[in-house]
Amino acid sequence: MPDAPTSRRLLLSATALIALGGPAAARSIRGALPWSPNEAYPPPRVTAGGWLYFTAEEAASIEAIANRLIPADALGPGGGEAGCAIYLDRQLAGPYGSSSWLYMQGPFARGTPEQGLQDERPPAALYRQSLSAINAHCRARFGGRAFPALSPEEQDALLHAIDEGRSGIAGLEDKPFFEMLLQNVMEGFFADPIYGGNRDMAGWKLLGFPGTRYDYREMLDRPNQPYRDPPVPLSGLRAASWQVAR
Amino acid sequence: MRALLLLAALLLSAPAARADNQDWTQVARGRYLAVVGDCVACHKATEGVAASDYAGGRPIETPFGMINAANITPDVETGIGRWTPDDFAQAMREGRRPDGAHLYPAFPYPWYTRMSRQDMDAIFAFLRTIPPVRHAVNRNTLPFPFRIRAAMIGWNMLFFTPGELRPDPAKSEEWNRGAYLVEGPGHCGVCHTPMNALGGSRSSEAFAGQSLQGWIAPNIGGNEALGVGAWGVDDVVQYLRTGATAWTRASGPMAEVVEYSTSGMTEADLRAIAVYLKDRPPRGPAPPAPLAADAPRMRAGEALYIDNCAACHRRDGAGVAGMIPSLKDNQITVQPGVETLARVVLTGVRSAATDLEPTAPGMPSFGWRLDDQQVADLLSYVRNAWGNAAPEVDVSLVRQQRERLTRGP
Amino acid sequence: MSRRLPPTDVVVVGLGWTGSIMSYELCRAGLRVTAIERGPWRDTPTDFPPTTAPDELRYSIRHDLFVRPAQETLTFRNTMNQTALPIRRWGSFLPGNGVGGAGVHWNGQTWRWHPWDFTFHSSSVARYGADFLPQDHMMQDWGITYEELEESFDRFEYLCGISGKAGNLGGQLQPGGNPFEGSRRRDYPTPPMQMTAAPQLFAKAATELGWKPFPQPSANLSQAYTNPYGCKLAPCTYCGFCERFGCGNFSKSSPQTCVLPVLVRHPGFEARTECQVTRVNLSRDGKRATGVTYVDTAGQEWEQPAALVLLCAYQLFNVRLLLLSGIGKPYNPATGEGVVGRNYAYQVTGGATGFFGQDKIFNPFIGAGSVGMVADEFNADNFDHGPAGFVGGASLACILTNGRPITNRPVPPDTPRWGSEWKRATRDNYNRWAAVGLQGSVMPYRGNYLDLDPTYKDSNGLPLLRMTFDFPENERKLSRFAVDRCVEAVRAMGAHTVRRNEISGPYSIVPYQSTHNTGGAIMGSDPKTSVANKYCQVWDVPNVFLSGASLFPMNAGFNPTGPVGALAYWAADAIRDRYLPNPGPLVPA
């Protein structure tokens, strides 16, 4: 080895980091696996009540849309009832809404479909602009009624038109908006309830998805049999909310 | 060949060369005894001060307040560089500094007093050889009245019996070696023998375990349900050497003991410790009747157990051998006190890492996810399922642990 | 202004699978190793325990474990006459980040590649003639053979504790294993995973079709295991949160479960996290690396001198670091000259999804990353390609990894995407679908390559990598052929409705396909056409060694982690046994 340094010099390198860079600037790990009590990184638990991003009309519009995309019926509650609007409101108020995790440096160009997302506007701005365009269109077309005040049939017809890219609504890019909307509403219906949607695990109960059970070994010898234990969310089930079948 | 001859010469001359700090065999033995005595656990330098195992400053929790461990490197100004072997022996035997001032029994002289002078000299000889570190430690942090060191005169009269341990001729050499290690340098009773209100050991309850610093130092005597009575000698050896057996793992303060001390001990010494501990009179309460499986609390706890614990500890509580602790037939689960159980659930825990068991699997914190009542129900279930039997857990105890250890849920 | 640190023996860029293996092997050889990792420290009980790991939104949809594109991404175009634009949000592939790298969030499908793969060019010419090979191909052998790597494959499998069934022990075919695999010295360390309902059905159907299905070799372990380093793993619980997630109960092989516990204990090792290496520093003549420069989270730039530099970052970022450092001549597709960036390849994915009658309950949430059955009849050169008209192949598998509901609730074709009818179909089919997927090879081509983007920069102001890639006709033929086989299998399983999923249109970075990017810094036997020699040593700068899939001259019909791990052992051995006694080029140029 050319000029193999001594262990004393290695020691100096570690202290140099502390002295010059400050410990926050470089975490040095050696000797033992780091661990500290209470260390856990659960997502912040969304509590219902109030809107962090949406205006009242935007929130009502998303609830109405979610109830058409996932209607309430004999199989269970609709998307709006399941909290999809609360879910989306909290998402738009966070890093998703502002695209803060994404690469958002310019120059921006439209690109090919294969090049994916190239829109400069983050989801929060897109929702604001698109819902405003949809409600302006509704008021003009349906005698002053915004989207939430339309009949279910009128709502469905409009949503189909947007889905198929033929709404003609000024200021709305039908397809990109609808793809984002459908994805986000489905997220709200099927994501862990800790994020504000999937209330009472309505989405999971529709499917029979057991949530965070994390252990199905006892089912391996029982193929083709239904799973019986109730779903568990990240925040856990309340005491005595279920009992093990004897 | 020459080295061998030299070594032989050293060995031959060792008894004569007492307290000669050039004696390699004495220094090596002193280094081993410092490991047995787990000196580093307390005398380790505080983070960032100095890269020395013995420069001191680490705060030690006592019933009376925090005491900072001394710098025991041979630094003349801030360590024990001016001490003589006699000074060191006086500290170990009588708990007094060269100037006559009393040390607090956070320094376990009531145990070290039982060591032979030869062993004390060996440790001292070893300490003379480590690099001196200049590190002044504030040694007077206790609140009034405990900061008056003379108060220890009374304490010593009440609780301290100086003097070297005498072997029991009726017992085997191995048993006597175990007794010496456990009662002397190993100072196991500091944690595992219940303390009275003034910090003295209740010898009538020796090794019966106690609540200490928010943990349970468990029963390590001959009791089969609560102690090591049902363990094989090999199990005790494996636990102390590696930090794990098939069904349990050392964690918390014991993880440090394993990492710094017992994992560095010889097999013969660990066997001796096991033989002696297993022969301690069984102490501790008889197990109560278990909670009925269909008691509401057991049903609630069972559901919580399956939701939260079974993915690692399995539905039958058996865990994964050598990896994830079993909760049945595990003495920790059924200790009279539940501080450790509540703490482990609330804050999570990491087990000991040793060369033989490097993985040190950790349990995550559930404090953010389970409330006090849920933890109490869950633990009551675990303590009474699968053949376990132990008192159910009061929610106030969980609340106290949470207040002590965590931010709220 | 960079601050210079005291030198170390070895600096390792990236602490994932290869970084941790090579760090530990070199620590054990007596060297002092400093690993520099772009992302955070991560460990099981704190960062992905069962209390927080099973969170589909956070990890699978929002990509919490992956590198934030805001920090580092690349640009993409299909062809050289397009303008590349940045991948602003991950889609087609998901590059890892942080300690453990992709080893934290992989599925655990662990293969030895076929002996044929390593000689894919010369073997294809020998069997089919040079004229049979696709237009503009850049096929060339690896410069290393399966036989040379066999011991290293074995070591990686025993490091991980892979659960599987041998198909070829010392040349003797073994019933129940893969009859097409290369000869192995011993069986897998642990027995295969227990199969769930859908893979069992596939195995039966595949057997009826005359194929020889066998259990997917799995890094989700069938039983508790202690590896040769003394690290312990627990048995898999089939939780259904494997790929894109860390494993909460120590049952998936990863740097965290298999290496880091012993590595951090080694006195010769130090890890520095959240430090991004921006270049390898070279001596004035450019023939020796002097260390690396990195930037910490405060924006401070540091120079870490070292005698040896190991590039252990993800494939894309290893190539970018070479280009940013001026190591090796950049590839020029116009002339075909240069080496860094050539032979970039991807994988063909797709298959067929079948929908079954009400008598089936597949419980898709009971799964693991590698629980499934595989048929290898149409992979590599395991069949006569003459009639098929393409080179390469695909493995076919029924692996039910999860039933996570945001993503995995397929409905039959022609079902509306929303509304009451969608809701009913979703409920009725959630438990009654199974897919047979394919993983197919991609050959190297002249126009598929990596270079630096002329326009877009990362958060440190350095040029992003640029990818130019599309699937050529050879791979489209392979896709059609292999999807046909998947459809046959799904029909034989008894599906009443089948949905095809094959390549159509240009390659798109939007839908997820595979994080098996390969090439760009390939190994070979000629410095004019490869970046590194057979010991993964850079031809031009012999104290720089490479690891990972950037070394692969082609992409095969199997997951890459097996050869990635094997090459890490192979290169570490070469450094210890060949380079250290006599530092310098290990193969004369």
From TrEMBL, chain A:
InterPro entries: Gluconate_2DH_su3. It holds the Pfam family Gluconate_2-dh3. This is Gluconate 2-dehydrogenase subunit 3 family protein. It comes from Siccirubricoccus soli.
From TrEMBL, chain B:
InterPro entries: Cyt_c-like_dom, Cyt_c-like_dom_sf, Cyt_C_IC, Cytochrome_c-type_DH, Membr-bd_ADH_cyt_c. It comes from the Bacteria. It is found in: Cell membrane. Its main location: membrane. Its cofactor is heme c. The keyword Heme applies. Residues 1-19 form the signal peptide. The keyword Metal-binding applies. Gene3D superfamilies: Cytochrome c-like domain. Residues 25-131, 173-281, 296-386 form the Cytochrome c domain. It holds the Pfam family Cytochrom_C. Keywords: Cell membrane, Electron transport, Heme, Iron, Membrane, Metal-binding, Repeat, Respiratory chain, Signal, Transport. PROSITE patterns: CYTC (PS51007). This is Cytochrome c. It comes from Siccirubricoccus soli.
TrEMBL record, chain C:
InterPro entries: FAD/NAD-bd_sf, GMC_OxRdtase_N, GMC_OxRtase_C. The keyword Translocase does not apply. Residues 445-568 form the Glucose-methanol-choline oxidoreductase C-terminal domain. It comes from the Bacteria. Keywords: FAD, Flavoprotein, Oxidoreductase. Pfam families: GMC_oxred_C, GMC_oxred_N. The keyword Isomerase does not apply. Residues 235-345 form the Glucose-methanol-choline oxidoreductase N-terminal domain. Belongs to the GMC oxidoreductase family. This is GMC family oxidoreductase.
